Amino acid sequence: MGEFDFAGHANAALAGHLEGKLLLAHGDVDDNVTPHLMMRLVDALITVDKDFDLLIYPAWTTCC
Length: 64
Known about the structure:
The chain has 64 residues and is of the alpha+beta class. The protein contains one helix and two strands. Strand 1 (23-27), helix 1 (35-47) and strand 2 form a beta-alpha-beta unit. The longest helix has 13 residues, at 35-47. The protein is flat, with a radius of gyration of 13 Å. The protein starts with 22 loop residues before the first strand and ends in a 7-residue tail after the last strand.
């Protein structure tokens, strides 16, 4: 299978390829995507001058 380039396929690395309207919604207690990973994506979107909306939901998770 060879080596997989995780960094090259990360959301932040692909930010410049996004098109259309973008809404990011994040639950701050989600342990699958921690807040710092969301902020990396936000930073990458700002760097490539992409417009987006961001909602941070306190105490919201996708788990039961």
